[in-house]
């Protein structure tokens, strides 16, 4: 009989298992930080593209209103300013200005000019600014001069809400654009995300992995009487009780030691039992191979008076144990008790000392 539905989520065991995995989580965090944070650094610092130069021109707009308080109703916002300076009309006038200026040497298509232009609006709604960005400082200044000319001339006359536009701070200096590279934040974000996903992955593995780490899991999940681990204090007494003879004084009759996993040696388990359970293990005890690799052992198991399953602790142990139990049940082999082999004794001690 299985007890999966009745087995509650074991918070203590999950916490301890996650603590055991801290070195791995730390290693994955460092690896993720170096991989993603380092990639960001290489891309944005070491392999940084060509430099760009920016020229900013500031204007004052006189709106066609009777009272200053009405500016808030007719003002042009930042998005609209950007639309205006990237419009076909504006770019045609700008190209004409650059063509007339024989010394400018600027030959750019409308698409290239539109990509180089931008607009901003200060808290004072009457003070917009234009931004010209190219890969050459002289080119940026030449285009900025043309933008100022079109802003104060053709554009001001085209928009009926505007009386006039004046340049209050001409763009006479090209400033190199410093990329907003935040290596520190990128590294921190990479570390946090790497640690987060590492913890989530291991949590999913711990909760979804059919593992057995505690002797108690054999009882809670599978309903098997459990002698414990060979190093537990109650192991010998449990073995004596489970496999007591007809007179109730130990030295039971024929008992089969049956390993669950194919890599677990039944003879090794039997030798350990003879050394630690002198009052229980008699001459009638014998070891068999795992039913996983030798299904024929069930004939000997049926002849035995008792069956001791040896379950090796670890990941996926539950899957193997369930397969063996189902097979033994079909073969009418009744398991008397089980022992957890190769368990982490420190984990078990800490589990029972931890109070949550």
Automatic annotation (TrEMBL):
The chain crosses the membrane at residues 20-42. It comes from the Bacteria. This is Capsular polysaccharide biosynthesis protein. The lineage of its organism: Bacteria, Bacillati, Bacillota, Clostridia, Lachnospirales. Keywords: Membrane, Transmembrane, Transmembrane helix.
